[in-house]
């Protein structure tokens, strides 16, 4: 594994909105947690809303919200945290039956029983949302993974070839960092027929050590696929002992994970941004990455950052 000096991010914009999610709220996303680019759009899933944020790829024009769940969330932080669906991951799926141009899948963290929901959204040939979102039941994962891995906290979802990889976020209290591998064809079949996901497509659970910043472990916060079969990931060192409570962020990092599960590159980020979402493309030897942040403060807008990372050589 290669370690390099701290990575400097370039701030591109705040994730401001043309209108807030409800009266009394502020017109921005604050807890950006997942990021996908499709066509001319950047889709951002926040973990403290019932909506998806839709932004232009270029410029600073305010984004719009698309409703995913009915109802209003409380404005108070503690009550909001208890009631929110906690959508932490967003992944673009390839075309399948009923979704000729693919779909977006937003996944709850499954850290509590009320967070075991996902939303499936069709997109058209231009990457625009197409039709009404559909709910997906993840409740089978709550008990299924508890026996194998402990308390879930799913923070990333990535399509790598014929597999869907979930990134399990560990914590300081003994929660384990892991890559969860599913057969993509079986996941898609289940989505198309039953609108639920269970343990049947599971291939393997691989624990992955990302190191520490001080005495706080670096733990997955998102991932993005590269065309060569590897994954770019983000990780944060958050001083918390469980999958529910937030803690002080002691730093973050960006890395590259090989198909074999080995960390090939790990670069710490030069400031204490809590980076929670990443989108990336590799051109030659350079990875161009976009990242979004979570301030853990509803009054502070999330930001979009960009950076370039020198890609490590592929393992033989």
Offer a quick outline of the entry.
The chain is mostly beta strands and 316 residues long. The chain has 3 helices and 23 strands. It has one domain: Tachylectin-2, Chain A (5 Propeller), CATH 2.115.10.
Please, could you describe this protein's structure?
With 316 residues, the protein is mainly beta. It has a single domain, classed as Tachylectin-2, Chain A (5 Propeller). The protein has three helices and 23 strands. A five-stranded mixed sheet has the order 1-20-19-18-17, with no helix packed on it. The radius of gyration is 18 Å and the shape is globular. 45% of the residues are buried. The model has no long low-confidence stretch (mean pLDDT 93).
Return the structural class: mainly beta
The main sheet comes to:
5 strands, mixed
Number of strands: 23
Radius of gyration: 18 Å
CATH architecture type: 5 Propeller
Question: Rough shape?
Answer: globular
Mean pLDDT: 93
The domain count comes to 1
Q: Count up the helices.
A: 3
């Amino acid at each position: 594994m290669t370690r390099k000096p701290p990575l400097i991010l370039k701030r591109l914009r705040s994730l401001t909105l043309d209108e807030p999610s409800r009266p009394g709220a502020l017109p921005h996303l604050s807890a950006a947690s997942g990021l996908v680019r499709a066509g001319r759009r950047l889709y951002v899933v926040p973990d403290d809303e019932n909506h998806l944020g839709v932004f232009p790829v270029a410029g600073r024009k305010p984004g719009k919200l698309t409703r995913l769940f009915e109802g209003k969330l409380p404005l108070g932080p503690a009550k909001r945290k208890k009631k929110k669906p906690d959508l932490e991951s967003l992944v673009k799926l390839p075309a399948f039956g009923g979704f000729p141009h693919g779909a977006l899948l937003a996944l709850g963290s499954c850290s509590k029983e009320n967070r075991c929901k996902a939303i499936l959204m069709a997109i058209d040939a231009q990457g625009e949302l197409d039709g009404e979102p559909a709910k997906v039941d993840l409740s089978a994962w709550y008990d299924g993974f508890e026996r194998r891995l402990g308390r879930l906290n799913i923070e990333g979802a990535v399509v790598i070839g014929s597999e869907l990889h979930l990134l399990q976020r560990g914590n300081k209290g003994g929660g384990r960092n892991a890559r969860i591998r599913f057969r993509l064809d079986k996941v898609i079949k289940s989505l198309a027929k039953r609108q639920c996901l269970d343990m049947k497509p599971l291939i393997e659970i691989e624990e992955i050590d990302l190191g520490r910043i001080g005495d706080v472990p670096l733990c997955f916060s998102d991932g993005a696929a590269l065309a060569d079969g590897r994954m770019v990931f983000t990780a944060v060192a958050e001083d918390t002992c469980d999958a529910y409570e937030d803690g002080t962020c002691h730093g973050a990092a960006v890395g590259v994970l090989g198909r074999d599960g080995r960390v090939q590159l790990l670069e710490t980020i030069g400031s204490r941004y809590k980076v929670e979402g990443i989108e990336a493309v590799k051109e030659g030897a350079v990875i161009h990455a976009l990242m979004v942040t979570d301030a853990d403060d509803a009054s502070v807008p999330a930001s979009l950052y960009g950076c370039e990372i020198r890609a490590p050589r592929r393992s033989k």
